[in-house]
Amino acid sequence: MSEIKLAVFDVDGTIVDSEYTIVRAMTEAWRRSDLGIPMPQDIRRIIGLSLTDACAALIPWAPRTTQKVLAEAYSDAWRTFSFLPESIDPLFPGVVDTLDRLEDQGWVLGIATGKSRRGLMTVLEGNDLTGRFVTMQTADDNPGKPHPAMLLRAAAAVGAHLERVVMIGDTAYDMEMAVSAKTKAVGVSWGYHTLDELKSAGAQVILDCFDTLPDTLSSLIPFDK
Fold first, then answer.
1. Is 12 a catalytic residue?
2. What number of CA atoms fall less than 13 Å from residue 80's CA on the CB side?
3. What is the helix (H) or strand (E) element at residue 206, kind and residue range?
4. How far apart are the first and last CA of the chain?
5. How far is CA 146 from CA 109, 153, 195, 219, in A?
6. Is 34 a catalytic residue?
7. Which of 41, 125, 157, 199 lies 20 to 30 Å (CA to CA) from residue 63?
8. What mean pLDDT do residues 99-123 have?
9. 86 vs 174 pLDDT, higher one
């Protein structure tokens, strides 16, 4: 049996606080599309989904073509804002130290995100995290969450058995994906879905701070003696 242990992280709401950038770009996309302006709390609800699915969730009554136009308008607005200094999504406290500790303990690190690869790389480069993650699964190459494909491909990419994979995320979509993939599921309390939603979706543990993650992962998947 493979001894590889893989910790897979969501990005928005888990590693970085991207609410400001996403709400700003989505608001601008709706303004350009003359669809009215969604409430910020409604936009928060769909963070974590792939872009077209997120737009579909905001306007489920609209034809798919309209949802795709809105997604394109969002991408254009996000590209415009991403060049502004205030649009660099900041890391949540404890991220870098926690990643260092996990690597020191032998964990392989991965990402599973509803972002595009371009969007992901912008976040990683802006926070000096390039090269930290061995496998990076994005919406460009996979079905959107909660489909299990991202976790299945991440595990296959590094040669890890699914029972030795942990998904760490802030939304019910992350937890549902982990349950579908038959991996461990760890929720975080500082993101965009409630504790009750995380628990109902299958979170085995919910963290209140990043510092406790290494011990939590070791309790879920103990290291071999």
1. yes
2. 11
3. strand 205-207
4. 14
5. 20, 14, 18, 25
6. no
7. 41
8. 95
9. 174
- pTM for the whole structure: 0.92
Q: Residue 169 corresponds to which tokens in the numbers above?
A: 């995320």
**Edge-to-edge strand ranges of the sheet holding 108-112:** 135-137, 108-112, 6-9, 165-169, 184-188, 205-207
Q: Is 68 exposed, middle or buried (0-12, 13-18, 19+ CB in 10 A)?
A: middle
CA–CA separation, 168 and 203 (whole Å): 9
Rounded to whole angstroms, how far apart are CA atoms 30 and 35?
5
Give the tens place of pLDDT for each residue, 174-225: 999 999 999 999 999 999 999 999 999 999 999 999 999 999 999 999 866 4
- Domains belonging to the chain, first-starting first, are 6-17+90-220 (3.40.50.1000), 19-86 (1.10.150)
- Write the DSSP string, 97-156: HHHHHHHHTT-EEEEE-SS-HHHHHHHHHHTT-TT--SEEE-TTTSPPTTSTHHHHHHHH
Element of type H or E holding 184: strand 184-188
Taking phi over 0 as left and psi of -120 to 50 as alpha, with beta for the rest, 157 belongs to: alpha
